[in-house]
Design goal:
The chain has 6 helices and 7 strands. By secondary structure, the protein is of the alpha/beta class. It starts with a strand and ends with a strand. 44% of the residues are buried.
């Protein structure tokens, strides 16, 4: 059993589900698949190094697919490569961006995963800063792993000017989901369940 998380760019998985991945890796391996290397917002080498340093914090492995940043497409090639990785790692749970997203790479990554993971038992969709009309129905308690999520986001020094990586915002969002669940003082990540087969 393996957890596989698909990230359109370096840092998307850290924003959307890293606290949960840090929890799950205690019981099963975690693989992070990064579709593009984020060259629009920095050098490929720097951004991939940051992603590796982030993943190292929890012991996750990383697969770089290196499609062009800004023009990711759902096609036979991208679907085939992600499907092959899902099968190779025997992934039972896959995380992917939510369907409603104004960033074209995020929307494409969603479609790629849905097409690739037809036989995967569980698909959970995470929120990114460009997600809209997000309707979560699955929540993971990340109270214990929120600090490591913050450390992971701090690894992305080339993106330090991006407001959505601000530690106070990340903390506030996690506390907001906790309050929605009447869990004051805790921290949660939220997901939309696409499929669960038990």
């Amino acid at each position: 059993m393996t957890v596989l998380a698909v990230s359109p760019h370096p840092d998307d998985v850290e924003i959307g589900c890293f606290g949960t991945l840090a929890r799950l890796i205690a019981d099963e391996p975690v693989v992070i698949v990064i579709m593009t290397s984020g060259a629009v917002r920095g050098s490929t080498e720097d951004r991939e190094r940051e992603a590796l340093e982030s993943a190292r914090l929890i012991g996750a492995s990383v697969e770089f697919l290196r499609y062009p940043d800004g023009s990711l497409e759902q096609n036979a090639d991208t679907v085939g490569k992600v499907r092959a990785l899902i099968q190779h790692h025997r992934a039972t749970t896959v995380f992917a961006p939510y369907s409603n997203d104004t960033h074209q790479d995020h929307a494409a990554a969603h479609g790629i995963v849905v097409a690739s993971a037809a036989h995967t038992r569980e698909i959970l969709l995470y929120e990114t800063p460009s997600t809209f009309r997000f309707v979560p129905d699955v929540f993971y308690d990340i109270t214990a792993t929120l600090p490591i999520k913050q450390k992971a986001l701090a690894e992305f020094k080339t993106q330090a000017d991006r407001p959505y990586l601000d530690a106070s915002l990340v903390d506030a969002q996690a506390r907001y989901f906790a309050l929605r669940l009447h869990q004051k003082g805790k921290a949660y990540e939220a997901f939309a369940l696409f499929r669960s087969v038990r």
